[in-house]
Amino acid sequence: MTKDRKTSFLTEELPRKILHYCPELDGEGKISDVQLSTPDHLDGFMSTIHKLSFRYESNDGTVVQTLKLMVKVMKGSDEFRESSMGKTQFTNEIYIYTKVLPAFQELLTDSGLAGDWCPRVYYGEAGHFPTYSDQYETILVLEDISPLGYKAGPRLDLEEEHLRLMARHIASFHACTYAMRLRNDARLASLIEGIAPLDFVSGDKTFTSYDVLLKLGANRLYKYLDDHPEQLDSEAFKRDMNNLRQRYGTTPISLMQDLLRKDETFSVILHGDYNRNNVLFRADGAGKPVELKMFDFQENRYATPVIDLTFYMYMSMTEELRNRCWDAIVLEYHTALLESLATILKVPQEDGLLDPYRLEPFLEHFKRHAMYGVIVTLHFLPWMMCPEEECEQLAHHFARDVHSKELAHWTLVCGGEEVDKRLVGVLRHASSKGYFEIVKE
């Protein structure tokens, strides 16, 4: 049976590219027993994920091993990639893996911190691959860490141990930006400049897919509250929701853009899509999560670290956990951040150099940006809570036509009232914490 163009590239050309990309592998080594599969459960909204394995033998025969890998490529038509800013997102992701992470790792070489935030990179390149397709492509090859015991956490509701581990993990990643800033490291400006802007609103242009999805998510919430006014159970909450609706009711994307404001102290090179579906956990013998790897840097930006925190916290915490652990998780992050900073800079935690990142200014910054996670949750939580067949409908219509009536319909009804009530709970919590203050300004 004749292989198609893409399969031939992935099974014949890509393995050789991998050998030349990795300095510890012999570029002239022998390749055999190439296996390629595309598991349905790994398919993403904007990417296709393949599993690739092959037997490698160095040219002198001293090294023989089987490489087990994950290959991530963009999918969709040029029109779909344009509306979803796929080219920018996936090119930025390649940049993070091939430029930013190595620079951060170099920063950590003599600090005692591991910096192994992600699966190992075996190949990453963006551009045109004529033997693969006629489109602009990004090809990213990572180690398949599932054989090492890494697994996805619960689909929606993480446990406290997961949440704390995620807080510590992303804190050490963010600390690298701050350490470079405090050291006046000239590399930082260059690293930031290399990230293509991923703005929600730029001049008269909007991020089309997000504009539609955020409106649909907000419309669902407002419709539910109109039908159930008793959910606005306090004057403060009612006032906050009225302010949000009046100022950003038809343009929630404008609020999201406002929250991307650069800050000379707190902006970091962030993950941007730090959530349960973009991390894998490894548990100990008792089942407690003890290690974490993150991936999918498509939405990375240079912006507030609160994006990486409030997204996964609002998405993955039940009301009971929010009430019991919200402040503790925020404090866990901040404690790990200061510890990592002090370790990288080789100063005591009490050193005045770290004063800009003390708890009080951090909490003030957090409060002013926490609505980012709230608004993302309005659009994304229904997708994660609804039954699989409804999620398939959403993914299908999203890829086919983001403006379609079908996507609007499924967004408004998926998951039913259970979703609506949980969304209201997120907004009610944000109101109680004072996060709506930014909406009044």
Structure description:
With 441 residues, the protein is α+β, with helices and mostly antiparallel strands. It has two domains: 1-143; 150-439. It contains 16 helices and twelve strands. Strands 1-2-3-5-4 form a five-stranded antiparallel sheet. A hairpin with a 6-residue loop joins strand 2 (47-57) and strand 3. It is globular and about 75 Å long. The model has no long low-confidence stretch (mean pLDDT 95).
List the helices and strands and how they pair.
Elements: H1 5-21, E1 30-37, E2 47-57, E3 64-74, H2 78-83, H3 86-108, E4 121-128, E5 136-143, E6 150-151, H4 160-182, H5 187-193, E7 201-202, E8 205-206, H6 208-227, H7 235-248, H8 252-258, E9 268-269, E10 279-283, E11 289-294, E12 302-303, H9 306-316, H10 319-345, H11 359-369, H12 371-385, H13 388-400, H14 405-413, H15 416-432, H16 437-440
Antiparallel strand pairs: 1-2, 2-3, 3-5, 4-5, 6-10, 7-8, 9-12, 10-11
